[in-house]
Design a protein that fits this description.
416 residues, mainly alpha, two-stranded antiparallel sheet, 11 helices, 4 strands, 55% helix, 2% strand
Length: 416
C-alpha cells in the first residue's frame, strides 16, 4: 500500500512551523509593562532587569523572523529585514517612558538598527561598577527591615538579606556572618524573648527563621506592630496635649510678666515725675532763699563798706563852759560789724536789721524819750549838779586826723 507524503504547507499558505514574514510584520510586538520601562534616574538594577527582558524579547522575535525567511523564500528579503528592524526600534521606543523619550527621542530617531538603540540607552544609564554596587548594597542593608505589617515570613526576609549581601562580598563565610547579624538585629523583642525561652537564640539565622515560621511567629509580630502603632499614636496625642498645656502656661506667664513690667514702668514714670517735681521745688526754694539772703545781706554789706571807709565822725553838740577845762573823755569807736549773715543785731530788742543806737525801743537817759540815746540827744543836757549845758551848733565837724584820738575843741573862756 502506497503512503501519501504530507505537504508541509496548507492551502492558506502558512507553514506548519512558522508564519509568513509578512504576517509577522503585521503582528503587534508586545512592549514591556510599565514597571519595566526605562525611566530617567532609575536604579541600575531596575535598568538591568528591564534591559535583560527587552533583549530576550528582541531575540525571540529575531529568531522567529529568521526561521520565517528560511521557510518562506522571498525575493525582497532585504526590504523585509529593514521593516523588521524598524519594528524592533518601535518595540524599544514603546519600552521607554514618556519622560525618557522627551529627553532622548531625537537621538533615538537618528539610529537605524535596534542594536544601536540599545547601545545608546546603555550609554545613558552607564554600567554599574563593583564599588557602586557595593555601596548600594550597604545602603540597602542599612534601610532593610522585615515587612511585619504584611506578614512577611522570616525565611523570605533572610533570603532578601542574602541577596543584598551577595553584592558586598564574594566570600561565603563573610556573607553568612553579615546576613546573620542583620537578621538578628531585625528580630522583634517579643520574638527574641520567645527564642530565649526556647533556647534558640544562639542558633544560626536559617534555623531561627525556620523555627519562627513553623510556629507562625511572624503573625505575632504583626500584632506587635499594630500595638506599636497604637502606642505611638497614644504617645503622639499625649505629647501634643503636654505641648499645648506648656504653650498655654508659657503664654500666661508671658502675659503676667508683661503686666508686671507695665506696672513697674508706670511706677517708674510716677517716681520720675515726683523726682522732677521735687527737683523743681528745690530749685525754686533755693532761688527764693538766695534772693532773701541777698536782700538781707545788703544792709550788712552797706554797713561794712561804710565802716571800712568812714565818713565824718559825729561829735556831740554841746557848749562847754569854763568849768570844763580839760578835754572830754569822749572816744569815738568803730563798729566792727555783725557776725550774723542776717544783718546787724540789736541787743536791746533782740532782733536783726539794726543796732542798739538806732533801735526805736531804746530810752534816752537825758530826755527819757525813745528812739535815741543820751549821746545823740538834741535837748539840753542835764548835769549832775543841776546845771544845764546848752547844746552847741547843730552841725557836725569832720573827723580829726587821728580817729583813735579825736581832738576836741577847748573852751575859749578857760584861758588855756
Amino acid at each position: 500500500m502506497a503512503t501519501v507524503k504530507e505537504d508541509p504547507t496548507t492551502s492558506s499558505g502558512y507553514s506548519s512551523k512558522t508564519q509568513m514574514p509578512e504576517i509577522i510584520l503585521c503582528n503587534h510586538f508586545q512592549a514591556a509593562v510599565s514597571s519595566q520601562q526605562f525611566v530617567p534616574k532609575m536604579e541600575f538594577y531596575e535598568f538591568d532587569t528591564a534591559r535583560s527582558n527587552l533583549k530576550d524579547r528582541i531575540s525571540q522575535y529575531q529568531s522567529l523572523f529568521k526561521r520565517s525567511l528560511e521557510d518562506h523564500q522571498r525575493n525582497n528579503s532585504s526590504e523585509l529585514e529593514a521593516q523588521f528592524e524598524r519594528k524592533l526600534i518601535e518595540l524599544i521606543r514603546n519600552s521607554c517612558s514618556a519622560e525618557f523619550l522627551k529627553l532622548h527621542a531625537r537621538q533615538i530617531a537618528g539610529l537605524a538598527t535596534a542594536e544601536k538603540v540599545l547601545d545608546y540607552i546603555e550609554n545613558v544609564f552607564g554600567e554599574e561598577t563593583d564599588e557602586i554596587r557595593k555601596e548600594r548594597a550597604e545602603e540597602d542593608l542599612r534601610k532593610i527591615a522585615r515587612r511585619a505589617d504584611k506578614g512577611e515570613k522570616f525565611s523570605a526576609f533572610l533570603k532578601r538579606i542574602e541577596i543584598i549581601v551577595a553584592d558586598i562580598d564574594q566570600e561565603p563565610i563573610v556573607r553568612e556572618f553579615l546576613a546573620d547579624n542583620i537578621f538578628r538585629k531585625n528580630i522583634e523583642p517579643a520574638n527574641l524573648t520567645f527564642l530565649k525561652d526556647n533556647m534558640m537564640h544562639r542558633k544560626s539565622a536559617r534555623e531561627i527563621s525556620e523555627f519562627l515560621d513553623n510556629r507562625e511567629r511572624f503573625l505575632c509580630a504583626q500584632v506587635s506592630f499594630l500595638e506599636t502603632d497604637r502606642m505611638n499614636y497614644f504617645i503622639d496625642q499625649a505629647t501634643q496635649n503636654i505641648g499645648d498645656k506648656l504653650t498655654g502656661l508659657c503664654l500666661e506667664n508671658n502675659k503676667s510678666i508683661d503686666e508686671k513690667q507695665n506696672k513697674i514702668e508706670q511706677k517708674v514714670d510716677r517716681f520720675a515725675a515726683v523726682v522732677e517735681q521735687l527737683t523743681a521745688t528745690i530749685s525754686q526754694l533755693e532761688a527764693e532763699k538766695r534772693q532773701q539772703f541777698q536782700s538781707q545781706a545788703q544792709p550788712y554789706h552797706q554797713s561794712v563798706s561804710r565802716f571800712q571807709n568812714p565818713g565824718p565822725y559825729i561829735q556831740p553838740q554841746a557848749n562847754f563852759g569854763n568849768n570844763f577845762g580839760h578835754h572830754s573823755s569822749f572816744q569815738p569807736q568803730r563798729f566792727s560789724g555783725p557776725q550774723n549773715p542776717n544783718g546787724p543785731y540789736c541787743s536791746e530788742c533782740k532782733s536783726y536789721g539794726h543796732i542798739k543806737r538806732n533801735c526805736r525801743r531804746i530810752v534816752c537817759n537825758n530826755c527819757h524819750e525813745r528812739g535815741h540815746i543820751a549821746r545823740f540827744c538834741n535837748k539840753p543836757r542835764v548835769e549832775n549838779q543841776g546845771q544845764q549845758v546848752q547844746q552847741g551848733q547843730q552841725g557836725h565837724q569832720g573827723p580829726p586826723p587821728n580817729p583813735q584820738m579825736p581832738q576836741l575843741p577847748r573852751n575859749q573862756n578857760s584861758g588855756n
